[in-house]
Amino acid sequence: MNAYPIDHVAVAVSSLSDAVPMFERLSGASGSPVEALPAQGVNVVFVGSVELLEPRGPDTTVARFLDRRGPGLHHIAYRVPDIREALRQLADEGYRLIDSEPRPGAGGHQVAFLHPASTGGVLIELVER
Ligand code: CO
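Above: inputs. Below: predicted complex with cobalt (II) ion.
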């Protein structure tokens, strides 16, 4: 059984420019430059270990999340040494995968998501750095 450290926590926000200052105030860290991820429909800023996700348009998963639930915790990311191996192990253990294959995420890292239906209602991201 492999244990994975937490890589980051992600928060969905309506506006990065509105949200970043509070997280900078709390952590003392400066926000990273905005990274656009058109394929995921988000703009991303990291403030320390908090990833802020802003939708790039109304027809994106994060925009739908904001419509449904409002701003707030979006996912928890765990760092894995080998994402394909982690996906294989977790699927064997009965976790439901959103991504059976890794895809490029923030920072160019490989990421994959586990379905909240199998993780107590929390969206879980796996990240291989
Ligand atoms: Co993330």
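The radius of gyration is 15 Å.
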